[in-house]
């Protein structure tokens, strides 16, 4: 219980500081997104949070908007009308190596995880923690558990905690780590319940972002 309270205090203090420090960068990114592609600056996909509760994650939009059936939709809908890409997307742990949907500026934002900066607001709101398991899409969780049946017990465990803006797998290879290994790492992280370990991951996160290792 003490760990949970300390972790939440740490989230509020550090995310507030990070928001203030990153504000000039976020303003610049917002301007670049608006100037280089049509559509909203922010993208708010639905993710599965603590205890299976859904929340809207905030991210900078890094993909094109598409017109399907007369309606302008986000790039995720684009995959539904392209079965070959959808198959490749699911096979690649819900990532595309050469994703045609990503904008020019989006490639840079995703490579250095700058598109994730708005998640600091999610941390302040309490939807997320600075450090925790990955925040998954509902369909991604269902699909990956079918592909990796042994992962189900780990998924059950990680859904008891707030998802993190960063975590053990993000600072250890990012997209190079498949779902089955990722959920084990997240479950092991939750078992540790250590503020010092949280701080260590927070310290490592900027270096992981700069190195761009495992970025897709």
From TrEMBL:
<feature type="domain" description="Bacterial sugar transferase">
    <location>
        <begin position="7"/>
        <end position="210"/>
    </location>
</feature>
<keyword id="KW-1133">Transmembrane helix</keyword>
<keyword id="KW-0812">Transmembrane</keyword>
<comment type="similarity">
    <text>Belongs to the bacterial sugar transferase family.</text>
</comment>
<dbReference type="Pfam" id="PF02397">
    <property type="entry name" value="Bac_transf"/>
</dbReference>
<keyword id="KW-0472">Membrane</keyword>
<feature type="transmembrane region" description="Helical">
    <location>
        <begin position="12"/>
        <end position="33"/>
    </location>
</feature>
<protein>
    <recommendedName>
        <fullName>Bacterial sugar transferase domain-containing protein</fullName>
    </recommendedName>
</protein>
<dbReference type="InterPro" id="IPR003362">
    <property type="entry name" value="Bact_transf"/>
</dbReference>
<dbReference type="GO" id="GO:0016780">
    <property type="term" value="F:phosphotransferase activity, for other substituted phosphate groups"/>
</dbReference>
């Amino acid at each position: 219980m003490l760990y949970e309270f300390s972790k939440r205090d740490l989230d509020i203090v550090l995310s507030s500081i990070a928001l203030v420090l990153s504000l000039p960068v976020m303003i610049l990114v917002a301007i670049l997104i608006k100037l280089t592609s049509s559509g909203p600056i922010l993208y708010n996909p639905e993710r599965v949070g603590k205890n299976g509760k859904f929340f809207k994650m905030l991210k900078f939009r890094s993909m094109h908007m598409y017109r399907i059936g007369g309606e302008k939709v986000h790039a995720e809908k684009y995959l539904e009308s392209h079965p070959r890409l959808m198959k490749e997307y699911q096979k690649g742990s819900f990532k595309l190596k050469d994703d045609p949907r990503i904008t020019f500026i989006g490639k840079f934002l995703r490579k250095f995880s700058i598109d994730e900066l708005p998640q600091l607001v999610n941390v302040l709101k309490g939807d997320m923690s600075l450090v925790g398991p990955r925040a998954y899409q509902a369909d991604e969780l269902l699909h990956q558990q079918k592909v990796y049946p042994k992962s189900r017990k780990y998924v059950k465990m990680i859904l008891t905690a707030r998802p993190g803006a960063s975590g053990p797998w993000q600072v250890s290879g990012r997209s190079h780590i498949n779902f089955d290994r990722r959920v084990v790492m997240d479950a092991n992280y939750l078992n540790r319940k250590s503020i010092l370990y949280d701080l260590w991951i927070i310290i490592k996160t900027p270096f992981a972002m700069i190195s761009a290792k495992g970025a897709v």
